[in-house]
Specification:
alpha/beta; nine-stranded mixed beta sheet; 51% helix
């Protein structure tokens, strides 16, 4: 992501005015650095990539000395690893007197978890550089002991050692805000030195802990890595270099610094000069070499001005540094390094600024979206909130059960099963055969039924095959001789040609008993549809309420209510099935009409000359032909017969003429067959309407009846304990609460950063 360093001239001209002496560039640089420092103060660097300089190096690589030289202050020193937490150095040139403000920049809790970003002032501003070392030491102790009040370390606990601290290392920072006339405009963070081993007092996990801490900084694309390498140790044995190569393999954002050049073994100077010439491990922003005063010199109280003079004399008078080509002289001395770092960072900030604006806007938008996706925050009125949700659920359920114009509506899902139920009941019609067994003729289509029982032309609704109840198997044939034999066996004291009603009743019972199965299938399908729809509706309204217990309680209550409605519906179905066991109808006209049609149909089937069929297909001739052909002769003969009967005062149709045929010996059986078949038409249509109506009334429409009250009672939303119960119901899960707090903290950081960005252009 970071490419700005590659666009910076690695070999700036010495006379181009870049530096603290250029007031225009210094003001722009200071403005950029101040902005990025304020953004870091908000803690937004945890959410996005901000430009920064991270100083890293292996243990004893001279990193602390370099930081002291750049900042002009003395850092705490002791045996072993000194830096146990990051130290932010925010340097800015000002016309006022020199001062240093120490703060504790807290981003993690005592357990290492992210927390609210706070900047805690640690003591009053320091005006004497000699006091800085002790204040930093105390600040580091406060950072490493998060469970102790930080202010105690200002004047107490002076004798605490590093081994007695609660933490070995910490991600929290000691922040130094240093300003003065001779201070460079530069900001950087000094990270703990990489360690290869731990002493007897150390912890085995410290090696990986420090490496992880350093990695968390340098892996960010906008982090300029200030890599310190000591010349007194073989280059390849210094782990900081290998870690840097892992995250910046092309060297685009690394600035190399060689330290302790005075300790190079005799004869090995040429190896290190290759770095200064950028021939060995070349970097886009080059390698620099600095010389800092030794520990004994520091103890003697050397000033930083004198230290800079000694450094300048070393590179000007000591071989081979004094004879290095002129174009490489600017890569030696701390002042040149500081100037270059300030330029790199300010230019990187300026280039990244539009991207920071865009990234900040995108992260803010995304965070707002994540907040909106969270369940609604618990209300201060838990009783009102729960009652409101119950009311909304009840209203939504009522609309669903009443019918909605949706493809996945409840009624739309039920309708295909109602249609299949009607087909299944109709398929139980008795299959009477008006011939004796062995007759191979095929029954003709009963046109009066085909026209009447066509299914309505509705849009096809796809129903999974597993949900469609199987229609009963085709009914076995009942031959006319079986009907007559049955009737004769059933006679008791009846007069000749009279047969007991038990015959018809037997055949009627056979088909009505088959209606229980499709009725049960329809009931089961409707029940399953309602249960699933109810579950989805409950989840829609209650899933995000509280910690999940409310959802399960509501599901139990509504399912119990559904089962209660289902019980009533089942009782109504059983009642209707029981009614059909006693054949009866008041629809005499409908029954008689069908019986006449079926009787004519069965008689016609037995007419060998197909006279009945011809009469049914009769159409009055338009004209009378004197010499009719065969077809015309029949039509004209029927016309004459009908005309004669009409003239005699008898109003008849051609379809009535089959009654004039000779009496069929099977006439009693035909009468029974026609009567049973006619009654089926009356009963099945009645039953095919009543079962769906009963189910709809009792379990579909009936589901909403009493549902709201059942929820109010089942959840105990009334009474003295209602408030406490509702408070528990709306209490959100700890994970959601934590996520809400986390997102709110993130929003606060982002909004604070957004405010700082807006200030830049005001």
């Amino acid at each position: 992501m970071l490419t700005s360093s590659s666009s910076i001239d690695p070999n700036p001209s010495e006379d181009n005015g870049v530096g603290l002496s250029d007031s225009t560039l210094s003001q722009h640089r200071r403005k950029m650095l101040d902005l990025i420092n304020r953004l870091h103060t908000t803690g937004v660097q945890t959410d996005m990539d901000l430009p920064m300089i991270a100083v890293i190096g292996s243990q004893s690589a001279g990193k602390s000395s370099l930081i002291e030289s750049i900042s002009g202050i003395t850092l705490p020193r002791s045996t072993g690893t000194c830096t146990r937490c990051p130290t932010e150095c925010k340097l800015s040139r000002s016309e006022g007197a020199w001062k240093c403000i120490v703060k504790l920049h807290i981003t993690t809790s005592s357990t290492g978890q992210p927390c609210d970003v706070v900047n805690v002032p640690f003591g009053s501003p320091i005006t004497d550089k000699a006091d800085v070392e002790d204040r930093i030491r105390r600040a580091q102790r406060a950072i490493l002991n998060p469970n102790i009040n930080a202010q105690k370390f200002l004047h107490e606990l002076e004798d605490q050692t590093d081994e007695q601290a609660e933490l070995s290392f910490s991600k929290n920072c000691v922040s130094l805000e240093i300003s003065g006339k001779d201070v460079a405009d530069l900001s950087f963070v000094d990270l703990p030195g990489l360690i290869a081993s731990v002493g007897s007092a150390g912890k085995a996990g410290d090696i990986d802990l420090v490496k992880g801490l350093v990695t968390s900084y340098i892996r960010k694309p906008s982090c300029v890595i200030l890599l310190t390498v000591t010349c007194e140790t073989d280059f390849e044995n210094q782990g900081a270099h290998h870690l840097t190569k892992e995250y910046d393999p092309e060297g685009k954002r690394t600035v190399g610094v060689l330290t302790k050049p005075d300790r190079i073994p005799t004869g090995e100077e040429s190896t290190w000069l290759k770095f200064i010439r950028n021939e060995q491990e070349p970097l886009v922003n080059h390698w620099y070499c600095v010389k800092q005063p030794g520990s004994q010199t520091l103890k003697n109280g050397i000033s930083w001005a004198e230290a800079r003079k000694q450094e300048n004399d070393f590179f000007a008078l000591t071989q081979p540094w004094s004879t290095v080509e002129p174009q490489y002289q600017k890569f030696m001395r701390t002042s040149n390094l500081t100037e270059r770092l300030s330029t790199i960072l300010s230019e990187l900030i300026a280039k990244r600024l539009p991207e920071i604006h865009k990234e900040l806007y995108n992260i803010l938008h995304k965070t707002h979206d994540e907040m909106r996706k969270l369940p609604k925050a618990p209300s201060s009125d838990p009783v009102g909130e729960v009652w409101s949700v119950v009311g909304q659920f009840s209203s939504h359920l009522s609309r669903r059960l009443e019918g909605t114009p949706d493809e996945d509506g409840v009624l739309q899902s039920i309708r295909p099963h109602q249609v299949e139920f009607k087909r299944a009941v109709r398929a139980t019609a008795p299959n009477f055969i008006p011939w004796r067994k062995g007759d191979t003729r095929k029954l003709p289509v009963a046109e009066f039924l085909a026209n009447e029982e066509d299914e309505p032309q509705e849009p096809e609704v796809m129903v999974p095959s597993v949900l469609i109840p199987r229609s009963p198997m085709p009914q076995s044939e009942i031959y006319i001789e079986d009907v007559l034999n049955h009737a004769q066996r059933a006679r008791t004291r009846e007069l000749p040609d009279n047969y007991p009603f038990i015959v018809q009743q037997t055949y009627i019972k056979e088909f009505t008993e088959k209606w229980a199965i499709p009725s049960q299938i329809l009931f089961d399908k409707v029940y399953d549809i309602l249960k699933e729809d109810l579950r989805a509706l409950v989840e829609e309204h209650f899933e995000k309420m509280g910690r999940g217990g409310t959802l399960h309680s509501v599901l139990m209550i509504v399912n119990e209510h559904l089962d209660s409605a289902a019980k009533q519906a089942k009782e109504k179905i059983d009642w209707l099935l029981e009614l059909e066991k006693a054949p009866t109808t008041l629809n005499v006209h409908y029954y008689s009409n069908y019986k006449t049609k079926f009787l004519g149909y069965y008689k016609g089937c037995r007419d060998p000359g197909e006279l009945t069929t011809k009469l049914e297909n009769y159409r009055a001739p338009a004209t009378i032909h004197p010499n009719p052909i065969h077809g015309q002769a029949f039509q004209q003969a029927v016309h004459k017969a009908l005309a004669g009967l009409t003239e005699a005062g008898l109003s008849v149709q051609a379809s009535d003429l089959p009654r004039l045929l000779p009496v069929d010996p099977m006439e009693p059986a035909l009468e029974i067959m026609a009567g049973v078949r006619a009654y089926f038409q009356v009963a099945y249509k009645r039953f095919a309407d009543m079962i769906p109506l009963a189910i709809d009334y009792e379990i579909v429409r009936g589901l909403h009846k009493g549902m709201e009250q059942a929820l109010l009672d089942g959840l105990s939303l009334t009474g003295p304990d209602a408030h406490a119960r509702c408070q528990l119901m709306v209490q959100e899960p700890s994970t959601v609460a934590s996520r809400r707090i986390e997102l709110q903290k993130k929003l606060d950081r982002l909004q604070a950063a957004s405010l700082e960005l807006r200030k830049l252009f005001v």
